[in-house]
C-alpha cells in the first residue's frame, strides 16, 4: 500500500465514523455563501466535467500527478483542488494535509525554503494559489522540492495564465443558473428568472461573484424577494435613467427610457437640465458626466455600460461605432494605468459626441 492508498483508507474510515447530528450543528451566521456552498467532492464540481473526470480517475488509480490549474476567476480552480483533497484525505485530515498559499502575498524564495519545504517533508498535498506570480528564483527552488519529495507530496499550482493544463473554462449560463437557483431554494430566497439572468450577466460568468452578490442582495432586501434593483445596487450598475441622460448629452437619442430602472432617487434635477440646453456642448457633457460620477459609480463601470449600449445598438452607423470603440479602448487603458476617472469619462463622452455629430 503506497502513501496515497493509506491516506484514502484513512479518509474512508473517517467518513464512516459516527458523527454528531447535522441538525444540531448551527453554521455561523456570517459564513460567506461561497464557502458554505463550496463543492465537498470532486463529483459536485459544476461546469468542468472533463477535468473532474480525469482527476477522479487519477484518484481511483492512486496515481495523482503534480497539477497546474489555469482559467478565469470564479470558474472553480480552488474549489476543485480542495474537493479533490477532501476526497483523498477526508474532511478532518485534510486540515493538516493541505497547505494553501497565495502567491500574490507570499511569492518569494524564503516562503519556498521555509513554509513549503518544511511542509512537503511531512505532508501530502499543498496547494499554491496564483503560482504564475512567483519570482523566478522561487519557481526554481519549488521545482527542486517537487522533485525531491514527489513520493509523498503532490503539488497543485493555480494561476490565471496558461503554460500547461488543466484548463478551467468559463462556466455556462445554464450551470451558473442551476447553482444559483439551488442556493436560493436552500436559503428560502425568492428570485425571478429574469432577475437571476440579470445577476449572471452582471457577474460576467464569475460564479464566486454571483454567489457573493446574491448573499449581499439577500441582506439588503427587507423581504425574502430579491429585485433587479437590488442586484444592480450591489453590482455597482449605473441605473438606465442616468445612462440615458449621459447618452443624450452626447447627442444620442435614447428610446424607451421612461420608467427605466425605477430609480427616482438618483435622477438629476430638471432645473440643471434646462440650464444645460442653453450651454455649449462641452458644458452640457461635463455637467452630466460629473453628476453621474458624483453618484459614486466607477468610471470603468460607466465605460463598460457605454460599450454595451452603443456598440450593440443596430441603429447607430458603423463608422461612429468604430470611432467610439477606439475611444473606449483608449480610456480603458488609461484607467488601468491610473488616470483620473473624471477626465477619462469626460473625454469618452466628448469623443462620442464628436463621432455622432460627424456621422
TrEMBL record:
Localisation per UniProt entry: Nucleus
Keywords annotated in UniProt: ATP-binding, DNA replication, Nucleotide-binding, Nucleus
GO MF annotation terms: ATP binding; ATP hydrolysis activity; DNA binding; DNA clamp loader activity
Highest taxon of the lineage: Eukaryota
GO biological process: DNA repair; DNA strand elongation involved in DNA replication
Family annotation (Pfam families): AAA, Rep_fac_C
Domain AAA+ ATPase as annotated: residue spans: 63-201
GO cellular component term, pick one: Elg1 RFC-like complex
Keyword Cell division: no
SMART domains: AAA
Family as reported in the entry's similarity comment: Belongs to the activator 1 small subunits family.
Protein name (database record): AAA+ ATPase domain-containing protein
Amino acid at each position: 500500500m503506497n502513501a496515497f492508498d493509506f491516506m484514502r483508507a484513512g479518509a474512508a474510515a473517517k467518513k464512516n465514523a459516527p458523527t454528531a447530528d447535522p441538525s444540531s450543528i448551527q453554521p455561523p451566521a456570517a459564513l460567506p455563501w461561497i464557502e458554505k456552498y463550496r463543492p465537498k467532492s470532486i463529483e459536485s464540481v459544476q461546469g468542468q466535467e472533463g477535468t473532474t473526470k480525469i482527476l477522479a480517475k487519477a484518484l481511483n488509480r492512486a496515481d495523482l500527478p503534480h497539477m497546474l490549474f489555469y482559467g478565469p476567476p470564479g470558474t472553480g480552480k480552488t474549489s476543485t483542488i480542495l474537493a479533490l483533497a477532501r476526497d483523498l484525505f477526508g474532511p478532518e485530515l485534510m486540515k493538516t494535509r493541505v497547505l494553501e498559499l497565495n502567491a500574490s502575498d507570499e511569492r518569494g524564495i524564503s516562503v519556498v525554503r521555509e513554509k513549503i519545504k518544511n511542509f512537503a517533508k511531512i505532508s501530502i498535498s499543498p496547494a499554491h494559489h496564483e503560482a504564475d506570480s512567483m519570482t523566478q528564483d522561487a519557481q526554481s527552488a519549488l521545482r527542486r522540492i517537487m522533485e525531491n519529495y514527489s513520493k509523498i507530496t503532490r503539488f497543485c499550482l493555480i494561476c490565471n495564465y496558461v503554460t500547461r493544463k488543466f484548463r478551467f473554462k468559463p462556466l455556462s449560463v445554464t450551470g451558473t443558473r442551476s447553482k444559483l437557483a439551488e442556493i436560493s431554494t436552500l436559503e428560502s430566497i425568492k428570485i425571478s428568472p429574469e432577475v437571476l439572468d440579470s445577476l449572471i450577466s452582471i457577474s460576467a460568468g464569475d460564479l464566486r461573484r454571483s454567489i457573493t452578490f446574491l448573499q449581499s442582495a439577500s441582506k439588503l432586501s427587507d423581504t425574502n424577494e430579491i429585485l433587479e434593483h437590488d442586484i444592480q445596487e450591489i453590482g455597482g450598475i449605473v441605473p438606465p435613467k442616468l445612462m440615458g441622460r449621459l447618452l443624450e448629452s452626447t447627442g444620442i437619442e435614447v428610446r424607451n427610457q421612461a420608467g427605466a430602472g425605477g430609480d427616482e432617487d438618483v435622477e438629476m434635477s430638471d432645473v440643471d437640465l434646462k440650464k444645460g440646453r442653453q450651454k455649449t456642448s462641452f458644458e452640457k457633457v461635463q455637467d452630466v458626466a460629473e453628476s453621474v460620477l458624483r453618484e459614486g459609480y466607477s468610471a470603468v463601470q460607466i465605460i463598460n455600460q457605454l460599450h454595451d449600449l452603443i456598440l450593440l445598438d443596430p441603429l447607430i452607423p458603423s463608422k461612429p461605432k468604430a470611432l467610439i470603440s477606439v475611444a473606449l479602448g483608449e480610456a480603458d487603458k488609461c484607467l488601468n494605468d491610473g488616470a483620473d476617472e473624471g477626465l477619462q469619462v469626460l473625454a469618452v463622452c466628448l469623443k462620442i459626441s464628436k463621432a455622432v455629430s460627424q456621422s
